[in-house]
Amino acid sequence: MSTEEQKTNEIELTPQQLKIYKKAFGERLQEIRLKKGMSQTALASLIGFEKTTISRIENGRTNFTFSTIVKICLALEVEMKEVYDFKFLK
Description:
Helix content is 64%, strand content 0%. It is mainly α.
Protein backbone atom coordinates (compact mmCIF):
# COMPACT_ATOMS: atom_id res chain seq x y z
CA MET A 1 0.00 0.00 0.00
CA SER A 2 1.43 3.35 -1.00
CA THR A 3 1.69 6.31 1.33
CA GLU A 4 -1.02 8.06 -0.66
CA GLU A 5 -3.37 5.10 -0.25
CA GLN A 6 -2.69 5.05 3.48
CA LYS A 7 -3.60 8.73 3.77
CA THR A 8 -6.93 8.25 2.03
CA ASN A 9 -7.80 5.42 4.44
CA GLU A 10 -6.80 7.40 7.50
CA ILE A 11 -9.51 7.82 10.13
CA GLU A 12 -10.38 11.45 10.58
CA LEU A 13 -11.50 12.95 13.86
CA THR A 14 -13.08 16.37 13.87
CA PRO A 15 -12.50 18.77 16.75
CA GLN A 16 -16.19 18.39 17.67
CA GLN A 17 -15.91 14.58 17.77
CA LEU A 18 -12.81 14.82 19.95
CA LYS A 19 -14.66 17.15 22.32
CA ILE A 20 -17.54 14.68 22.57
CA TYR A 21 -15.20 11.76 23.28
CA LYS A 22 -13.28 13.68 25.95
CA LYS A 23 -16.56 14.64 27.61
CA ALA A 24 -17.84 11.04 27.51
CA PHE A 25 -14.58 9.79 28.99
CA GLY A 26 -14.72 12.43 31.72
CA GLU A 27 -18.32 11.59 32.59
CA ARG A 28 -17.39 7.92 32.90
CA LEU A 29 -14.43 8.79 35.10
CA GLN A 30 -16.63 10.94 37.33
CA GLU A 31 -19.22 8.16 37.59
CA ILE A 32 -16.56 5.71 38.78
CA ARG A 33 -15.04 8.20 41.21
CA LEU A 34 -18.42 8.97 42.77
CA LYS A 35 -19.30 5.25 43.05
CA LYS A 36 -16.04 4.85 44.96
CA GLY A 37 -17.10 7.68 47.27
CA MET A 38 -14.04 9.75 46.43
CA SER A 39 -13.92 13.51 46.01
CA GLN A 40 -11.97 15.26 43.27
CA THR A 41 -9.70 16.64 45.96
CA ALA A 42 -8.95 13.19 47.38
CA LEU A 43 -8.25 11.74 43.93
CA ALA A 44 -6.02 14.67 43.01
CA SER A 45 -4.09 14.29 46.26
CA LEU A 46 -3.49 10.57 45.66
CA ILE A 47 -1.95 11.16 42.24
CA GLY A 48 -0.15 14.44 42.96
CA PHE A 49 -2.38 16.70 40.86
CA GLU A 50 -4.46 19.77 41.55
CA LYS A 51 -8.23 19.35 42.02
CA THR A 52 -8.75 21.61 39.01
CA THR A 53 -6.94 19.10 36.80
CA ILE A 54 -9.38 16.35 37.79
CA SER A 55 -12.26 18.75 37.18
CA ARG A 56 -10.96 19.62 33.70
CA ILE A 57 -10.56 15.94 32.80
CA GLU A 58 -14.05 15.09 34.04
CA ASN A 59 -15.53 17.99 32.10
CA GLY A 60 -13.67 17.12 28.89
CA ARG A 61 -11.75 20.39 28.89
CA THR A 62 -8.19 19.08 28.74
CA ASN A 63 -5.96 16.53 27.08
CA PHE A 64 -4.23 14.04 29.33
CA THR A 65 -1.46 11.52 29.04
CA PHE A 66 -1.59 7.76 29.26
CA SER A 67 0.39 7.90 32.51
CA THR A 68 -2.28 10.18 34.00
CA ILE A 69 -4.96 7.60 33.24
CA VAL A 70 -2.82 4.83 34.72
CA LYS A 71 -2.40 6.85 37.94
CA ILE A 72 -6.12 7.58 38.10
CA CYS A 73 -7.00 3.91 37.62
CA LEU A 74 -4.54 2.86 40.31
CA ALA A 75 -5.94 5.45 42.72
CA LEU A 76 -9.53 4.38 42.01
CA GLU A 77 -8.54 0.70 42.09
CA VAL A 78 -10.17 -0.05 38.73
CA GLU A 79 -8.98 -1.68 35.54
CA MET A 80 -8.36 0.64 32.62
CA LYS A 81 -11.10 -0.99 30.58
CA GLU A 82 -13.63 0.33 33.10
CA VAL A 83 -12.85 3.99 32.43
CA TYR A 84 -13.04 3.42 28.69
CA ASP A 85 -16.45 1.76 28.92
CA PHE A 86 -18.56 4.33 27.08
CA LYS A 87 -20.25 4.50 23.69
CA PHE A 88 -18.28 5.65 20.66
CA LEU A 89 -19.78 7.61 17.81
CA LYS A 90 -20.43 5.88 14.53
